[in-house]
Design goal:
The protein is α/β, with parallel strands linked by helices and 301 residues long. The chain has a domain of 172 residues: Type I PLP-dependent aspartate aminotransferase-like (Major domain) (Aspartate Aminotransferase, domain 2). It is 38% helix and 12% strand. It has 10 helices and 8 strands. It has a 5-stranded parallel beta sheet with strand order 5-4-6-7-8, with helices on both faces. The protein has a 3-stranded antiparallel beta sheet with strand order 1-2-3, with no helix packed on it. Strand 6, helix 9 and strand 7 form a beta-alpha-beta unit. It is globular, with a radius of gyration of 23 Å.
Amino acid sequence: MSATESIHHDELVTRARAITARELQVYIDRTKGSQRATDRARKVLPLGVPSSFQAYDPHPIVVSRAQGPWMEDVDGNRYTDYDMGFGALFAGHCHPLVREAVERQLDNGTLFVTPCELNADVAELLAQRYGLPMWRFTNSGTEATMDAIRVARGVTGREKLVKVEGGYHGHHDEVMISMKPPLSEAGPADDPRAIPATAGITRAVLADTKVVPYNNLAALERVLAAGDVAAFIVEPVMENIGICMPQTGYLQAVREMTRTYGTMLIFDEVKTGITAGWGGATGVFGVQPDLVTLAKSIGGG
């Protein structure tokens, strides 16, 4: 870098820092109610939030109500919601048809120890969409992926699991590995190490979870060839690190490879699900997994 370039770079850095400081102060001034609500919550909730990803400095926006594409915070500020619960609110906030269906069911009760006909109603619709005959309902995407992995282990009699580096599949131990590992610890790009995402992940769990790069068939075959892998769990379209599309033929080759090595293929469609199309990414790419997990995209109506 030349002396002139260095001066220009320093000027840009100084300007960027000034803009950031100014905008941060605007945020603080506009969200004093959110600050008070967060200070209160921090006394009884870790980081002051129900889920750790919601915490950021100096404090998160605390929402009081939402309608359609809008959210309003406790200070009365209005925002366009581009997140929509990572796809859970595909129909928007408080959609009239969703509210009507919920209110109608409230008259009939909300929790039964015995089955109700709604179970089969939804399962039949999902079977039509995804081409998979049997469905089991859980309370969350985390439970769905956890149960799918357990099923794969039970069916195959194997214990090893393969996941993609950077992939998120919920907050149970087997998949809280190499979600966003530090580069200094991640290992080679084509042979990443299994790095725990948090304290509390045991060495035994780490040993049973293998990590591969997305869109890398050679790396996947290298771990499957050992013949001890129960399941490969993958988002057909990776969404935890941005929108990463599968390369042409990747998912089709993954399907054939997992069959060859006796490994069950789990598509985690918690986010892609209904948002990718009528039959999710499974239908869009025309690749049939052994198991598919859904949650967010079917949870909002």
